[in-house]
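forwarding from the other thread:

> can someone predict this with carboxymethyl coenzyme *A?

sure thing
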Amino acid sequence: MTKTAKLSLNDQNIDLPVIVGSEGEVGIDISKLRGQTGAITLDPSFANSGACESAITYINGEKGILRYRGYDIADLAEHASFPEVCHLLIYGRLPTRPEREDFRGRLTRHSLVHEDMKKFFEGFPPTTHPMVVLSSMIASLSAFYPGDDTAEEIDLNIIRLLSKAKTLASYSYKKSIGQPFMYPQNDRTYLENFLMMMFGVPAEKYEVNQVVRHALNKLLILHADHEQNCSTTAVRVVGSGGANLFASISAGVSALWGPLHGGANQAVIEMLEMIQADGANYQKYVDLTKSKDSDFKLMGFGHRVYKNFDPRARILKEASDNVLASLGVDDPLLEIAQRLEEVALADSYFVERKLYPNIDFYSGIIYRAMGIPTDMFTVMFALGRLPGWIAHWLEQRNAPGTRINRPRQIYTGETARPWVKLDNR
Ligand code: CMC
C-alpha cells in the first residue's frame, strides 16, 4: 500500500499521508490540508470521513462483520454476560474471574439513586417519554458526583453511571405507569435487578424468568457498541469540549432518540401495528416507500454501513422465534414482520439499494414478548449502548493530542453588505 495520496489543486500538488488500520482500512489524513492549500473537504453527514482512530469496535459493512475488541459479536452474544461485555469495551479486555466478581460487586453496590433525585421525577407530566427522563437524569448525576479530575474519580463515575442508569430507566417506566419506584437489591445481579425493578411486585418474591433474562442479556450485548454512529459521535463531540462523563452521555441518549437511529425500534412496532390495522397489505407499504409522492420508509430497514446484512439482525431474527416460542407468546406482529421482510427483500428497489433489516427490525418484537412497553424500547437500546458510549468517551479523553471537535463549513450566505436601518420600510 502506498504511503501517500496525491492531491492536485489549482497549481499545487501535495502529498497526503495514508493511514492503514489493523484490519487494512485505508484513510487519507487531511489534517494538514487547510494549512497547506487553504481548502477544506466537504462531506455532509460524514459518510466518507473518519473522525478518529479507535481500538474499540471493528465493522466491515460489506462482509457483515462486527467485533468488539476483536471478539465476534455472535460469540459474545452466545457466551458472554452483559457486565463482561461492559468490562471488555471499557477496559479493553475480558475480565478474569476475580475481576469479574469485583466488577459485578461494584455494579451492584452503586445502583441506588440519591433520594433527592426521586423528586425530579415528580415534576414530569405522566405522558413524558422515558427517553426525556433518562437523558435529564443522566445529566443530573453530574450534580451529585461532580469530581472527574483523576483516573480514580472517573472510574468511579463510570461504575456509578452503568449501575444507576438501569435504576433510572426502571424509575422512568414506573413514573409513566404511576407506580412506586422499586429499590435495587444487592443480592441480585445486574439484569435481575433491572427486571425486578421493572416488574417485581412484591420485590422479594419476584423470580426472574430465565428466558427473559437470557433474551435481555443478548439484546444488551448486541447493542453495546457500534463505533462512530450518530449517538457515539455526539458523545465524542460533547466530550471533546471537556464536558464531564454524565453530560456527554446524556447528549448520546438524546442523539439516540431519533427515529432514524435508536428510536427506530419503537417506530418499527408502530409501523407493524399500522400495517396490521390496515389488513396486513405488505405490498402496499413496500410500494409506498418507492412512491415519489411519499416520504414513507420501512422502519428497521437500511443501514449506513451494512450493505449485505446486519449480523445483529440475523441473530435477533432467530432469537425472536425462540423467545416467543419459549414464552408461549403468539404475536401476530412477528408474522407480519417476517412476511414484510420477504416481500421487501424480493423487491428490486430494496435489492438495488442494498436495504436489509437492521437490528431494530426484530428487537421490538422480543421486547414486547418480554412485557416491555413500546415507548421503553429506545431506553433499552440506551442501556445496551451505555458501555460503548463510555468506552469512546474514555478513549478520546485518554488519547494524546485530542483537540476540541470543530468542523468547518462552506459558507453559502450573503456576501458583505452595508448596514441599513429598516425603520421606514
Ligand atoms: N425504506 C425505504 N427506502 C430506504 C430506507 C428504508 N428504510 N432506507 C434507505 N432507503 C433508500 C433511500 O430513500 C435512498 O434512496 P435513493 O437513493 O433513491 O434516494 C437509499 O435507500 C439510500 O438511503 P440513505 O437515506 O442515503 O441511507 P443513509 O445511509 O443516509 O441512511 C438509515 C441510513 C438507517 C438512516 C436509513 O436506511 C433509514 O432511514 N432507515 C430507516 C430507519 C432505521 O431503521 N434506522 C435504524 C438504523 S440501525 C440502528 C442504528 O444503528 O441506529
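The pocket of carboxymethyl coenzyme *A is lined by residues 226, 229, 260-262, 264, 289, 297-304, 353, 355, 358-360 (CB under 6 Å). thats all i got for now
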